[in-house]
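Journal club prep, notes for RB
We'll compare a predicted complex against what the paper describes. Inputs for the flavin-adenine dinucleotide case:
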Amino acid sequence: MIKSDKPAIVWFRNNLRIHDNPALAEANRNHAQIICIWIAEPRFFEHTLNGHPRIGAFRAKFLYESLQDLQSHLRQLGNELWILKGEPGKILPQIAEAHGIKKVYSQAEHTDEERRVEAEVAESLDLKLYESHTMMHPEDVVGGVNRLKKSFTSFRKRQERDWKIRPVCETPEMVSPPPQPAPIMQSLEWNMQMWAELDQPADSRAACSFRGGEQAALERVEHYLWNTQHLSNYKETRNGLIGADYSSKFSPWLAVGALSARWLYFEIKRYEEQYGANESTYWMVFELMWRDFFRFSAIRDGNSFFGYLKNRSWPKLREFQAWIHGETGQPFVDANMRELKNTGFMSNRGRQNVASYLIHDLRLPWVLGAAYFETQLIDYDSCSNYGNWTYLAGIGADPRNERRFNVAGQAERYDPDGAYVQLWD
Ligand code: FAD
């Protein structure tokens, strides 16, 4: 196919990878010149309702590393990543005009803020959006994504009856080079040093040393599947609390799109062919379905998915501060909250318990907890985070009055010798 001599923009968002990246692959197929861009948007520097930065130090460092990795990968393939700062709706048209560009290729997002930004860009440019964040394509939701059931189990059963995962797209061996950059590019450039400097001291108790970027993501998959075959025991170990391998730890890379969920699905299938399918390999796909389910729920619900409370005058702030700092007096909650504060990560078991404790024991508004997780979680993903919080608050998926965990009972069951509580004492 002959490539157009008109250049195009590839606007990277939560798809910081080369593999299975349809926006990049399609632009590369169609255009002889490409400008690759990532934009630090003003909203990234806003604060949550708790007054904390939306992107806290752990997230910032992980993003910084992911962008650096993408930069070096694109250079190897003959291109370059421009890291810019500004409103995409303003700066993409300026860049396009300076280079005679009409087309912008990017990843489709489905949450309100992201869609508003997309709409601004699409006002003056031909914005081509590709689905690449989920394992399943939203158009393949049985019965239609807008009529998605509230119950995860019904969704799962319907999908499993009519199972369809689209093939991954090809990984480019070379990327079309960029045109000579117009002067405007330098003027919009953002120096990420501010994020690099937020680096937190490493905590030797951390479950995993997360390094951002596609390279590290693929190494993690190599480790968890092929080198150790931990995947074959995932169902038995997934409720663990200590160490790198009780669960996959894929979430931070999935969140920024350094790892494709769809590519991962086919790796799991390839693994099953070699080492055999069992309940654990099934369960990994089951959890990836939860991730898809929350994103599809956000498409169905629009902004109400985030369920913000209108009342912004929060009671009991002292209790909230104690929860954040791991000083509530409930040892299992405190251990988990200290892990989060010091490392940016917490196990799924921990997240369920601390969230339940905030909602049902401290009786604090769940959005306070969700907003703190937004700042702090290295794997923060708007749909997975708010979806899980509303689920536990009983107002999201499978709505029900009390989804409460007996935290002391959970500690006895999952930390019977108290090793985890002791680790974070
Ligand atoms: P594994 O157990 O190895 O699971 C494999 C993958 O499946 C994960 O990487 C993740 O992508 C997906 N997954 C697993 N459990 C869930 C789940 N309950 N919901 C959605 N996807 C799931 N996950 C995030 O990625 N980002 C978040 O911001 C986030 N916030 C959460 C908030 C609360 C209150 C709770 C209870 C859970 C939250 N989760 C979130 C889900 C889950 O805790 C993490 O995905 C998981 O702990 C990450 O570790 P892992 O990669 O080792 O998971």
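Talking point for the session: The chain has a mean pLDDT of 95.
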